[in-house]
Each structure stands twice: as structure tokens, then as C-alpha cells.
Fold this sequence. Notes:
There is one protein chain. The protein has 523 residues and is mainly alpha-helical. The protein has a domain at 4-136: Potassium Channel Kv1.1, Chain A (2-Layer Sandwich). It has helices spanning 43-46, 51-56, 74-86, 97-107, 119-131, 135-144, 149-154, 157-169, 201-204, 209-222, 227-241, 251-264, 274-287, 291-303, 310-313, 333-349, 358-378, 386-395, 405-417, 423-430, 440-446, 454-466, 472-484, 489-501, 506-521, and strands at 4-6, 13-16, 19-22, 30-34, 37-41, 64-67, 90-92. It has a 5-stranded mixed sheet with strand order 2-3-5-4-6, with no helix packed on it. A two-stranded antiparallel ribbon has the order 1-7. Strand 2 (13-16) and strand 3 (19-22) form a beta hairpin. Helix 4 runs antiparallel to helix 5 (119-131) and helix 22 (454-466) crosses helix 25 (506-521). This is BTB/POZ domain-containing protein At5g47800-like isoform X2. Residues 198-467 form the NPH3 domain.
Amino acid sequence: xxxxxxxxxxxxxxxxxxxxxxxxxxxxxxxxxxxxxxxxxxxxxxxxxxxxxxxxxxxxxxxxxxxxxxxxxxxxxxxxxxxxxxxxxxxxxxxxxxxxxxxxxxxxxxxxxxxxxxxxxxxxxxxxxxxxxxxxxxxxxxxxxxxxxxxxxxxxxxxxxxxxxxxxxxxxxxxxxxxxxxxxxxxxxxxxxxxxxxxxxxxxxxxxxxxxxxxxxxxxxxxxxxxxxxxxxxxxxxxxxxxxxxxxxxxxxxxxxxxxxxxxxxxxxxxxxxxxxxxxxxxxxxxxxxxxxxxxxxxxxxxxxxxxxxxxxxxxxxxxxxxxxxxxxxxxxxxxxxxxxxxxxxxxxxxxxxxxxxxxxxxxxxxxxxxxxxxxxxxxxxxxxxxxxxxxxxxxxxxxxxxxxxxxxxxxxxxxxxxxxxxxxxxxxxxxxxxxxxxxxxxxxxxxxxxxxxxxxxxxxxxxxxxxxxxxxxxxxxxxxxxxxxxxxxxxxxxxxxxxxxxxxxxxxxxxxxxxxxxxxxx
Length: 523
């Protein structure tokens, strides 16, 4: 970081209670009040350098009191200007330049109306030759201008800083010679000689969201950087300002940041990853973003859904409460449902018929596999309502599942984790199963699965008969013995009756099974 040292005299300002004065043999004749601080100083060093004070002290009174409560930068900035007038040593850097420059402008410390080589001229030289020439100096100066935004905007400081930052970001990486912050895991500047393309993203993430927006808009307007690089800058900013937030943590400011980031996403589909898109959607739900914002993010998530992994879909429900006081939280299935519905809507709109197009068939089956794998995870959550489980399982079209092994596993896990589920809910949950699409191994497991409703087990057995499997009779007998062992008296009687008549009335049972399967296929 660059510094500028002005003045040679030692610091002779000292404080008594709320009063700042300077050690001198001459009595003070100028009183400056700034908020709760009072300065007892001298006219002579200040008036020749400050046009404003010259006009305010034009009555030639022996001792004058002036209130400067609205000076930009407050008492600290004023003291820098006062020390410059006294010739006291001051050190200027990007940290205090903006406040000093604005205060000097306020006091009219220019060469046109006062002494040659005045404070403003020296500050302008330092700004143009040192601060704007450096990367981090410009970032620091721009960040320090936030509290003085009106002054820094009017004086052109903000615009010049932004232009300098944008110019450096657009510099080809091999020509980057200045220092920058880059803390990605696994990256080591000593071993990586080349400058990474996203070298600039962490430093600008320290800026206020409005300044950040100005920089991203300026960069995007040049069309010189690829959209994924812009997306990476948005991702870094989100990680910096929206890491782990709750609805109670400054939600207004966080919502502003979130909606700004979403508005800055390039239209290109590959500009941000599906995991980042889904996280933005989760934050939008948490922070109460506008419906327009949510819809925009949902559409982007749905366009990338087939690229997602199960871990990308796992978010805690913001409205869930844990009844037993433990650490479990219900997963945000509503988020996944919203994205899936948007995906299916777009998938069905495509032509030719979605289920006849090879590429679209691959797409829907990738999503089907993803959702069934997701169901296997959320099924372990004991707080998961069965209605949400059923709704998501039934949302997929038939063509999305070439086989039903994965959805069977999800249902089996859910039944295991929810042992007190009612018979009616078990039947509704198992209704999604198509026994004809179960593999032989899964059917073998199903006929012995005590968690399944009897009706589902019988459907599996009927399908075994329909296939004419040579092992049907032995499986029927084994299943009947298994069913008889169930504690429910009604189930035992049903199992006994069905086992006596199953082989003798195969044709009749086959017709009943076909009708039952058809009704489940088209509920």
C-alpha cells in the first residue's frame, strides 16, 4: 500500500476532556466545534489555507467560534487538514484519503483561492499517481468512500475508482503485476506461476453491494469476460456476505444483497452452477424475496436440474420445527418440488413429443434417477410428512423411471423410519410402485417385506405368476407362509385363503392384477 508523508513538525495536538488544542506560546484565537469535539487553535496557520474559514472570520474579531458539524469525515478529517496547515507530520493512505480530500474540499483548501501547493493539489496528485495506480489501494479507497458517498460521487472519486478497477479486471491475466487476494483451497502462488482468471473476485467482494453492482455491470457491458467468470464473482460475493444466515439476521440488507446478485446473473445457462442456483433459491425463500425473483431462480435451477447431485438438493426446511427437541430438521422438499415442476413444464413443452425424443428421454431419466435418490435420503428423516413424500414420488411421469427399484428402496426406507404409519398412508405411498418394473431381486425382497401392505405383496406375486416363472409356486408358498406369520389376524386369514386358491384360480387372479396395475398406473 502506498503512503504519502506531509509536514515535518512533531505532533503537538493534545486532548483535555472533549477539547483538542495545540501546544504553542501564542494564545489560541479560533474555536472550531465539530459535534462533541472542540478545537482551540490559531487563525494564522489555517486561514491562509482555508477559503471557507477566511470568509467566516472576515469580521476581524479577536476570537471567533465556528461550528462545522457538517464537515465530511468529521473531526478526524478536520484534524488532518489542521495539521497540514501547522506543518505537522501526517501520513496519508488509501484508508484516510477520501475523508481528507472531502474535508479539504469542504474547507476550500485549493490553490486558486489560497496558498500555492495547498492540500487539495497534493491530495489529487497522490490519488492519481499512487492510489489509482494500485489494485488494493483503489479497492480500499472505494470502500472507505461508502460513508461519504454523496461527496465522493460529486467529486468524481467513486467513478474514477470504479473505472480503474474495471480496467484492471479486464487486463489479461499474464499482464497482471499487482498483488491481489486469492485464498482458494489448494492454490499456492509459489507453485502456480500463472495468474488465475478469477484473481480479482475476492478483493471486490469486500465492497458494498451497490459498488459491487456498479463494477459487475461495467464489466458485463464490455462483453470481454466469459459469463462463468462473472458468475464466479457473484458466487464469491455470496459466500462473503451470505454464508450462514437466518431469517432474523439483518434480513432487509441480506435480501437486498441477494436480489442484487440474482439481477446480475448473466442470461447464459452456464454462467452459474446448479448448486449455487439452488442455494440462491433457498436463500430467496428464507429472506422473503419477491415472487419475480423466486420465479427467475426456479427457472434457472430447473434448466440445470439434470446436472445436480443429491447433495445439491439437500436444504433444511425454513419452516420446519423439531417436535422432539433433537437436531433433526425436515428437508425442504417444497424447494425440490418447485424446481421439478418447472423442469417438467419445460420438458413437456418441447417438441417433438418429449417421450419420443432420445435426448429428452435421457434428460428426464437422469432427473428421475436424481429424484429417487433424493427420496432415499429424505426418507430417513423421521419428521418428513408422508404427504410430501407421496407428492414428490408421484410427480415424475412414468417414462422417467425405466425401473422402479430406486423408488422401492426409498419407500422401504421411509416405512422403516416411520413404523407407526397408518395402513391407509402405507397404501397411498406404495401406490406409486409398478410391480412390473421391479427387478427379480427386488421382487424377491418385496414378497418377504413385512413393512409393505399386503395388497402390494400380492401384486408382486401376481406378476410373478403372469410371467410364468418356473419358481412361482415355490415363491407363492413361501410368501404365504411369510404372510401367515404376520401378527394381524385379518392378514393371516387373507394369506391362508389366497395361498389355497392362488394356483387353481390363476387366470382369474391374472385379470384382477392387470386391472389393479392399470388403475395404479393411471390414478
